[in-house]
Amino acid sequence: MIPTRSTHVAAYVAIMAVLISLTSGCWNRREIETLGFVMAIGLDESPSGRIQLTVQFAKPGALAGGTEAAGRSEKPFWVSTVEGDTVFECFRHLGSVSTKRPYLQHNRFIIFGDELLKNKGLMPVIDFFNRDAEARLASQVLAVKGATAREYLQAEFEGASLPSEGEQGMLLYLETALGTISPLTFRELEDRMGSEGIEPIAVGVEVVPLKPDTSIKGELTREEVKSTARLGGTAVFKGDYLVGWLDEYETRGLNWILGKVKSTLMVFPQPGFEDRLATIEILRSTGNFKVEVRDDSIVASIHVDTIGNLGEVQEPVDFVKQPETWGQFEKGLEAAIKQEIMQTVTKLQALGADAIGFGQDIFRRKPKDWANIRGHWDDLFPTVKIHVQVKAKLRTPGMVLKSVKTR
Question: What is the pTM of this model?
Answer without folding.
Answer: 0.85
